Amino acid sequence: MTLEKNDYKLESKKAFLEKIENHYKPITDEKIPESIFSDLCKYLARSLHKSYKTLRKRHPQSKERYSSFKIKDLQYPFTQYCITNFLKEKDAINYSKYSKIIFQMTENEFKDYEKQKHAYETK
After folding, report:
1. Nearest Cα to 83, choosing from 14, 19, 13, 24?
2. Which of 5, 48, 56, 57 is buried deepest, with most CB atoms within 10 A?
3. 94 burial class (0-12, 13-18, 19+ CB within 10 angstroms)?
4. CA distance 70 to 2
């Protein structure tokens, strides 16, 4: 009996970028400057693509899972923290406004989120 080797190829960064842009474009509805939005999507595509590559090597049994980008990965707290940090770097004044738009949060929800983020980053 021979085991069939499935060779799941990793999607390109461009495919990651397209999925991320398509996910966030209707949510942001041009309420975030285009240059910041574009840079954020590129940053996420690069960062997540690199993570998928690493996870594929570290967990070869999960190559199928890490062969194509999953939108749900944008919902993980660490990914959201990276988004907020990126936005803060780009526009320290408006980062909270942009974060609330992307995460679809109210002011109070964002305050709670920032407390959780701070707790995570200072543990």
Report:
1. 24
2. 48
3. middle
4. 31
Which tokens is 115 given?
Answer: 């407390």
Strand spans (E) along the chain: none
Q: What is the per-residue pLDDT for 6?
A: 57
Taking CA atoms, 107 is separated from 14, 68, 104, in Å, by 33, 34, 10
User: 81, 120 in Cβ contact below 8 A?
Assistant: yes
- Helical segments of the chain, H only: 13-28, 34-58, 77-90, 95-103, 107-121
CA 65/CA 74 separation, integer angstroms: 15
